[in-house]
Amino acid sequence: MIRDKQGFTLVETMTALMVFGMLLSVALPVLSELKMHHESHVRRTQASHLLEAEMERIQSPTVSVPSQGERKKTIEGTVYKLRWRKKRVESHLTGSYVEVLWVDAVEKERKQSLKSLTYTP
């Protein structure tokens, strides 16, 4: 490089571009994987909220719910399948079981479930 002129030589510019390209080739797969993990976490959180809401719905004394059933709910393009069962366990105890099924961001089927006993006078 000539000292009385300002600027970068072609070799310096090419070296900087190569270093930038190598950093980018490492960062893009990492960012893609982080995005996939974030989407999986969001779907799992939505499934948990649906699960709790469905359990509250079938245990509510004011809502008439069949002893077992199934329904689907779609949130942001993800289809969640909700299933429930209620049965009398003892004379004053009712058992409830709710599960939610969905397909994760990595195309794997996932499932969460809740069980509960409720006192019924």
Automatic annotation (TrEMBL):
<keyword id="KW-0812">Transmembrane</keyword>
<keyword id="KW-0178">Competence</keyword>
<dbReference type="InterPro" id="IPR012902">
    <property type="entry name" value="N_methyl_site"/>
</dbReference>
<dbReference type="Pfam" id="PF07963">
    <property type="entry name" value="N_methyl"/>
</dbReference>
<protein>
    <submittedName>
        <fullName>Prepilin-type N-terminal cleavage/methylation domain-containing protein</fullName>
    </submittedName>
</protein>
<keyword id="KW-0472">Membrane</keyword>
<dbReference type="GO" id="GO:0030420">
    <property type="term" value="P:establishment of competence for transformation"/>
</dbReference>
<keyword id="KW-1133">Transmembrane helix</keyword>
<dbReference type="GO" id="GO:0009986">
    <property type="term" value="C:cell surface"/>
</dbReference>
<feature type="transmembrane region" description="Helical">
    <location>
        <begin position="14"/>
        <end position="34"/>
    </location>
</feature>
